[in-house]
């Protein structure tokens, strides 16, 4: 872990932006560099960002650990320290649970890094399209109770278009560690699907609380096909749009995942994140670009 002796440091607006994003999710320097496109003053070189991260670490606001990886170069992921959290939220703010500040278990590295890649690409794409990203949910901090089933999505966010339309999403990142179907009393994708469908059945599709669940697979597109097929089989009303799915490499290679086809829904419609781009609903067309910063309300 890299954590130096505290030194006095006057924080800049960019420093606050760094603290803000790391409060949402652990990120590497490379991920933060890409994300800095959304900053008021983006970093022009990776080494300048790395130098600033070192300063923030020495000031006691950040801490970093290496990801378990093979190959040349080991990326480090950064987290806030308690001082960093209090500097961002105030000394009177209630501290998160202890694991928020602790090293990530090695068997969770792939999950955390992949979720970071997804979120960074989403935020940058939304920024370029003038779409605000609000209400970003930290991993495992949102609890959904569906009957006797308790669900903790990996992330969640709201997209607000320049026209003021709002769309809610919950994220389930899938690393193929869970069975899709299981008759035993263990966690499975099918049980998650049933839980989300049951919970969504209590919400009117036109209510602000309505959301869709986005499954993001990291290892194969075939896995995504199986998950979406299972979704159709367990849904009480298959005509509702409750589930979306994408393969992470497909999502990351899409320049504009909000408006270009890179996802599929439980009704087999190819679409982008914003629902008006469903290929069966209306023809695809270029969207106007707006210079508006992506923002969070956590």
What's the gist of this structure?
This protein has helices spanning 13-24, 29-35, 46-58, 82-89, 109-128, 189-200, 221-234, 248-253; strands at 27-28, 62-66, 76-80, 132-137, 144-146, 149-151, 155-160, 166-174, 211-217, 243-247, 263-265, 270-271.
Question: What are the main properties of this structure?
Answer:
298 residues; alpha+beta; Arc Repressor Mutant, subunit A; Trna Endonuclease, Chain: A, domain 1; 2 domains; 7-stranded mixed beta sheet; 3-stranded antiparallel beta sheet; disordered C terminus; Replication-relaxation; Replic_Relax
Summing up helix and strand content along with how strands pair, one would put the structural category as alpha+beta
CATH-defined architecture of the largest domain: 3-Layer(aba) Sandwich
**Between the first and last Cα atoms, what is the distance in angstroms?**
27 Å
**SSE series:** HEHHEEHHEEEEEHEHEHEE
The strand count comes to 12
* Stretches with pLDDT under 50, minimum 5 residues: 277-298
**Strand-residue proportion:** 15-25%
**Cross-sheet strand order for the largest sheet:** 4-7-8-9-10-11-12
Integer average pLDDT: 88
Major sheet characteristics: 7 strands, mixed
CATH class of the largest domain: Alpha Beta
CATH topology-level name of the largest domain: Trna Endonuclease, Chain: A, domain 1
Q: So what's the overall shape?
A: globular
- What count of helical segments does DSSP give? 8
The overall number of domains is 2
C-alpha Rg, in Å?
Answer: 20 Å
Helical content stands at: 25-40%
InterPro entries: Replic_Relax
Protein name: Replication-relaxation
Organism: Gimesia alba
Region (Disordered): 273-298
